[in-house]
Each structure stands twice: as C-alpha cells, then as structure tokens.
Amino acid sequence: MKYIKKGAEPESFTVWKNLANEDWQPSWENFGKPQKTDVHNSLLQEQGFICCYCGRRINTDDSHLEHLKPRTTYPQLALEYTNILASCQKDTVPKEPLHCGKEKDKWHDENLFVSPLNINCAEFFRYTDDGQILATNNLEKQLPAEITIDKLGLNINKLKDLRAKALEPILEIINTITEEDRQDLILGFSETDFQGYYEEFCAAIIYLLKN
C-alpha cells in the first residue's frame, strides 16, 4: 500500500457544492459531470495513477470513486474530498473475484483498517518474491494488516500473479547491483515519473529493494 497525500479538491467541485440553497442541496445522487470527472481526474493525479489499495495502474475507464468511510454509514462524508479515493475494478465481471474497493464495500473499522491516508501505512505490510502481501512481523500492526488484506481481497491469485510479474525485473538484478544503485532505485520507485505516474505495484518493489 502506498501513502496518498491528499491535495485540495477541484475548484469546480467546491463551486458546485457552494450552490446549495433552500431548494437544492448537493448530494451523491445528483453529483455528475463535469464535476465528477474533475474529481476523478484529480484523484488519479494525486495517487500517481495507481489504485489506492492494491497499487495497480488505473485510469478513468477502469477505476471508480471509492469512499474510505462508506457513504451509507457516513452520509455526511459522501461529498467530502478527503474521504474519496480512486480504486480499481470499476466494473465487475461474472466469476471474477472482487478486490479493493468493490470487495471492501460497506466495511469500515477505525481500529482495524489500514488506510492509505496513514503516512505509515506501508509499514503494516511485507511482500514475498512470489507476489504475496502479508502482515508485518510487528505485533502491534499485525492484526490491522491481516484484517485489511482480507477485507480488501489483496491476496487473491489475480493480484499475487500481477505483483509477482512486476517484481521479476527487480529479482533478476537485486543480487548484482551496488548499494548505491539500490538506493537510487528505491528513490526512483518512490517518486512519480515526468508524467505523474507511479510504477505499478511500487510499494511491493520498494519493500523488496529495502529488505
């Protein structure tokens, strides 16, 4: 999981919400274009075009707006920009297992959910060469990590296979590079490229390089 630093919401979104009056109130039900598109694009940019949970590469066509705190339980936060992220798996496919926002659905537990808005969220997880995501060995962080992995479906075979494929190039060179090269790679994968994109599954790659 990669930490997401939230920025300011799009101006068009703010202006639209400020149109509220006695006869009309902004709501998720009447939230549409162009404001919804602006929000979606803003989320993708601040996330470096990767899923807020699993780290897959995403765009507007294959991702959806995800509420950290479900809007059914926290309706007052439905239009709160800090509560909205972009998650993968926009459309569900029959027999394809759900994961990330679709699997999380209405679940939320303040004490057991590792949020990508937690600056230390990466410390809760570790990764294996074959693409698994596991809970850290830190006893205080183990249970929230295990619950989060389970509730988001982060260890389904589909995601494990994709992570393993992303790790292959690093595994091929990791024992042959210098310490300076290793540090340069860690720094490179920690930042977006010139187009604003993070490398897919960069959190897993960084973990492997560090450990």
Overall description:
- This protein has 211 residues and is mainly alpha-helical.
- The protein has one domain (11-210).
- It has seven helices and four strands, in the order H-H-E-E-H-E-E-H-H-H-H.
- The protein has helices spanning 11-17, 35-46, 100-104, 139-152, 157-173, 179-189, 202-210, and strands spanning 63-67, 84-88, 125-127, 133-135.
- It has a two-stranded antiparallel ribbon. A two-stranded antiparallel sheet has the order 3-4.
- It is globular.
- The chain starts with 10 loop residues before the first helix and ends with a helix.
Tell me the span between the first and last alpha carbons.
16 Å
Count of DSSP H/I helices: 7
- Placed side by side, the strands forming the largest sheet appear as 1-2
Q: Quick one: biggest sheet? A: 2 strands, antiparallel
List keywords for this structure.
211 residues; mainly alpha; two-stranded antiparallel ribbon
Summarize this, please?
With 211 residues, the protein is mostly helical.
Fold topology:
Layout: H1 11-17, H2 35-46, E1 63-67, E2 84-88, H3 100-104, E3 125-127, E4 133-135, H4 139-152, H5 157-173, H6 179-189, H7 202-210
Antiparallel strand pairs: 1-2, 3-4
Helix pairs in contact: 5-7, 6-7
